[in-house]
Amino acid sequence: IQSLATRAGCVYQLIQHLERGEYPNSSQRNTPPSISMEKLEGICGALNTSVENFLECPSVKIPPKFQQ
């Protein structure tokens, strides 16, 4: 977990929360966990995969400001 977090540029606690389906900054109950696009891209980059492959959702639309 620590190695992935370091490569993704985040703290290991974030990875732990996401693995459990939690998100530490979620202020509303009964809402699914969410993560910023920047953090998701960092995690996917560390895993050497695309966001679409990671989510197994080819119809994911990446906002233009995040496209290269």
What do you see in this structure?
The protein is mainly alpha-helical. It is 44% helix and 0% strand. The protein has helices at residues 2-8, 12-19, 37-46, 51-55. α1 packs across α2 (12-19) and α1 packs across α3 (37-46). The mean pLDDT is 80.
Topology record:
Elements: H1 2-8, H2 12-19, H3 37-46, H4 51-55
Helix-strand pattern = HHHH
The percent range for strand residues is under 5%
The structural class is mainly alpha
Q: What would you report as the Rg, rounded to the nearest angstrom?
A: 12 Å
Q: What composes the largest sheet?
A: none
Indicate the mean pLDDT. 80
Distance between the termini: 28 Å
Short summary:
The chain has helices spanning 2-8, 12-19, 37-46, 51-55. It is an all-alpha fold. The mean pLDDT is 80.
Please give a handful of descriptors for the protein shown.
68 residues; 44% helix; 4 helices
